[in-house]
Amino acid sequence: MRQAERRAQTTNRVLDAAAAEFARRGFHAATIDDIARTAGYTKGAVYANFAGKDALILALIDRHLEDQLAQLDLLLANTSTADLRTSLRNAAVEQNAAGGPFGLLMLEFWLYAARDAAAKASLAERYQRMRDRLAAAIADRDAARGDELPLTAHEVAALVLALDAGLFLQHLLDPHAVTPELRANALTAVMDLPRPTG
To answer: Are residues 78 and 42 in the same domain?
Structure first.
């Protein structure tokens, strides 16, 4: 195995271990020792790949973000409202089944980042990438449908991300109140805002 492949394997094992420890203990309580032990490496091996817990969580966010962006492209390829709603509902079912621990980790890191300038800048940059990609997809979708938005595509993207985050938080507390159908209907309604007439 080449050195680059070994390094990539080590990085992935450490990230998987960090995800498991953060999910089990939380971002603040999990230690580099815990993560190294779970990964089967020494603490030095973890530090050889990541500067600390902030770097680990940002790498996990990057990995998650790439998956989300790929899903986003597929979702917004649907030009009809009915197809978009169905795709969003199916995505919500999958996210509800698998996304709880990561969503909680994101919330915990979000609160930490709000009080730490470096973490805040790093997290904001990642959300900007997501908004930019979402805005481009919304603009393409509307252009294909011949629609003109009453808001800019970037404004709609910001609303979609904020609404989705809020619905996720409510789902954590009361899953029956925020169903996949509600999530899909709400997000579709924002993306298909009434167009100005005349």
So the answer is: no
The domain of 185 spans 54-191
Query: For residues 157 and 5, what is the distance between their CA atoms, to the nearest angstrom?
Result: 37
* 82 & 26 share domain: no
Residues 11-29 pLDDT 10s:
899 999 999 999 888 888 9
> Over the stretch 95-135, which tens digit does the pLDDT of each residue have?
777 666 777 888 888 889 999 999 999 999 998 998 998 88
How many whole angstroms separate alpha carbon 20 and alpha carbon 12? 12
How confident is the model over 14-70, as pLDDT tens digits? 999 999 999 888 888 999 999 999 999 999 989 988 999 999 999 998 888 888 777
Q: What is the DSSP letter of 195?
A: P
**For residue 20, which phi and psi values (nearest 5 degrees)?**
-65, -45
Distance CA 177, CA 23 (A): 24
Pair 173, 84 in one domain:
yes
Q: How far is CA 89 from the centre of its chain?
A: 17
- The total number of structural domains in the chain stands at 2
The CATH number of the domain holding residue 6 is 1.10.10.60
